[in-house]
Amino acid sequence: MEPLVAKAPAKINLTLRVVGRRTDGYHDLVSLVAFAGASDVVSLRADAPLSLAVAGPMASDAGPDTDNLVLKAARAFARELPGARLGAFRLVKRLPVAAGLGGGSADAAAALRLLARLNGLAGDDPRLHAAACATGADVPVCLDPRARVMRGVGHELSAPIALPVLPAVLVNCRVAVPTADVFRTLGLRAGDPLPGPDHPSTLPVEASALRAVLAGLPNDLEPPARVVAPIIQEVMARLTGAPEALLVRMSGSGATVFALTDTCRNAAALARRVAAARPGWWVRPTVLR
Predict the structure, then answer these.
(1) Which of 28, 138, 227, 247 could form a disulfide with 260 if both were Cys (CB 3.0 to 4.6 A apart)?
(2) Would you give the distance in Å from CA 127 to the centre of its chain?
(3) Residues comprising the binding site for ATP?
């Protein structure tokens, strides 16, 4: 039997408001999430002992295979579906690690989609969502990788949103930025709110109007991430100074920065220039949807 295969696309936070810190220590968020063409790839060979092999250009950064969220997701799935068929996973790691792209969460969500296919489970089965929630905060939004607004700790999801096509360039300086360090630097105490603009309930369907709305909605994790990894400021300055860049922002907790452009041609031209100037960086032109 041929392995089942699924892409694990990078998650991009077009906006990221930290509403405040809860009394349980978690942070409440509101974020407009889109997904890029850049992705990892997960495959599953059915009815083999549960295992994971990691390959690809970023494999050495992914940490011990036994700690990978793919295996955590498979075990959560097995708890929700006792007797479920599992198998041997293979992850081709192409996305940078600890990069604000939700790569580990996307990998876990892809693994869950493969297990659902193997076991004849519908994509909207509540047991699949429960397994995703048990695996990690960003895994539910990655289960069905379409643009949405996510709220709370990431488990409250809007219906899919039809965004206009958004050509973009993703740039990562290859400096890992642990999410916990960024939230620690943000410095909210339990019960503290973080004032900021309200997230709109509806969004424009035209690209330039959407960019104008996004410009007024910050990523609240960007300032603390620049403290943790000051090189993020260099990435942002390089992109902001480019004539093709219409909006520049950091994704997630960093360090990946994206620039929105008006055409795929301009995204490709900007990516070529950045890659030539900084050959050690990870640079990808893409389309966000």
Answers:
(1) 247
(2) 22
(3) 96-106
The per-residue pLDDT for range 79-116, each reduced to its tens digit, is 999 999 999 999 999 999 999 999 999 999 999 999 99
Choosing from 40, 72, 107, 138, the catalytic residue is 138
Task: Please answer whether residues 228 and 255 qualify as being in contact, where contact means their C-beta atoms are separated by less than 8 angstroms.
Answer: no
Reported CATH class of domain 4-157 = alpha beta
11 among known catalytic residues: yes
The CATH class, in words, for 166-288 is alpha beta
Q: Residues, the chain, total?
A: 289
Residues that constitute the known binding site: 96-106
* This prediction's pTM: 0.96
In this predicted model, what pLDDT tens digit does every residue of 233-274 receive, in sequence order?
999 999 999 999 999 999 999 999 999 999 999 999 999 999
Cα distance from N-terminal residue to C-terminal residue, the chain: 33
Q: Which of 11, 72, 181, 220 is catalytic?
A: 11
Secondary structure element (H or E) that encloses residue 242, with its range:
none
